[in-house]
Amino acid sequence: MTYASDLLTTLDTRGYIHQLTDATALDALAAKSVVPGYIGFDPTAPSLHVGSLVQIMLLRRLQQTGHKPIVLMGGGTGKIGDPSFKEESRQLLTEDRLETNVASIRRIFERFLTFGDGPTDAVMLDNADWLDTLEYIPFLREVGQHFSVNRMLSFDSVKLRLDREQSLSFLEFNYMILQAYDFRELSQRAGCRLQMGGSDQWGNIVNGIELARRMDGTEVFGVTTPLITTADGGKMGKTMAGAVWLHEDQLPHFDYWQFWRNTDDRDVGRFLRLFTDLPLNEIAWLEALQGAEINAAKIILATEATALCRGRDAADQAADTARKTFAEGAGGDALPSVTVTGGSMAIVDALVALGFAVSKGEARRLIAGGGARVDGEKVTDAALDIRVTAAPVRVSAGKKHHGLLVAR
């Protein structure tokens, strides 16, 4: 479909669109007026991870094409937890923890969006402002009557849990009603006309559209993105050990840069369109590179994606560290390091100290599998004692993790 609005044209050509509600009407609205649009984020941790990045970039594209991003923090819904495709209930967080997480997460959005009071400036709202004051009986009478339990049970996010005979609490079951109410509330409070989200949010978005129409006669719209997977079928970003966090407090700049540098050749073009601001004609040239030349495109992807999330200085420093570490064999200041006293450290202790293994047993298994290197040389002896003198010693675990042993 050919779109008239810059918004839908941009989302389409860069690969963000999976589903649309009434594309023709939304396209016409976006072509003639500023469209406030929102995405919700539950503050379950101090940082979002890379799995949330496509949604953050959606808000960035919204602003870049002349519309108004609304970042909705789930200070209210975060007290319940979204059941969407989760295998178990989330741990309930205290209000103090939620508030701390919201403040921490805001710093991420300030790097991607321009906040302010202008017509296209981003705003951050918290659904606790209205959900915390709801009275149960009036809410059931005014809102609950518009929901069919039969239909709610048919949504994939609920059906999956039930099919697996996994517990779905009444608390979680209410989440979709509250999210629908958020959309209706934002349409009233902020003139919001668009909700965006991942494909797993389609049912929740449609609920909100129908609720706004039934209660207020307001026409609002929805857009979902495809599930972003890697070429080997893996899912980007997970809220478990090894998550690629957007905050430098949880993940060093170099490790974030290296995550993008390790992108599969087949994903380079798609990720450049989704996660950088590079023009499409330049991306087309980069993704056409073949053989070893594709590494240049990966370095550009890593540097541009890191610049958006961590700042240009951090991105350039990480790229320079990688160049020195791998091309020149030197050590970079951005790599994690451990100070060694006594002149030497056992390889298993080094792997644990650098955070590449959680125990000596895991470190030995890493060595046995051929995944440990010292200054580029594969380690075959788990009893190796690394001598550390004036020059730092580079210790690597696989292709992604590198650190330095530095003499005191």
UniProtKB/TrEMBL annotation:
Q: Where is this motif: 'HIGH' region?
A: 43-52
A single cellular component GO annotation: cytosol
The reaction(s) catalysed by this protein are:
tRNA(Tyr) + L-tyrosine + ATP = L-tyrosyl-tRNA(Tyr) + AMP + diphosphate + H(+)
Cite a single GO MF annotation.
tyrosine-tRNA ligase activity
Give a yes or no for keyword Metal-binding in this entry: no
EC numbers listed for it are: 6.1.1.1
Transmembrane segment boundaries? none
Per UniProt, where does ATP bind? K238
Keyword RNA-binding applies: yes
Q: Which residues bind L-tyrosine?
A: Y38, Y175, Q179
The entry's keywords: Aminoacyl-tRNA synthetase, ATP-binding, Cytoplasm, Ligase, Nucleotide-binding, Protein biosynthesis, RNA-binding
Record InterPro entries: aa-tRNA-synth_Ic, Rossmann-like_a/b/a_fold, S4_RNA-bd_sf, SYY-like_C, Tyr-tRNA-ligase, Tyr-tRNA-ligase_bac-type, Tyr-tRNA-ligase_bac_1
Question: Which enzyme type, at the first EC level?
Answer: ligase
> Where do we find the motif 'KMSKS' region here?
235-239
Q: Where in the cell is it found?
A: Cytoplasm
The UniProt record lists the Tyrosine--tRNA ligase SYY-like C-terminal domain at 333-387
Against Gene3D superfamilies, the record matches this protein to: HUPs, RNA-binding S4 domain, Tyrosyl-Transfer RNA Synthetase
Family, per entry: Belongs to the class-I aminoacyl-tRNA synthetase family. TyrS type 1 subfamily.
How this chain assembles, per its entry, is: Homodimer.
Described by its record, this protein's role is as follows: Catalyzes the attachment of tyrosine to tRNA(Tyr) in a two-step reaction: tyrosine is first activated by ATP to form Tyr-AMP and then transferred to the acceptor end of tRNA(Tyr).
Designated name of the protein: Tyrosine--tRNA ligase
Native organism is: Sphingomonas oligophenolica
**GN (gene name):** tyrS
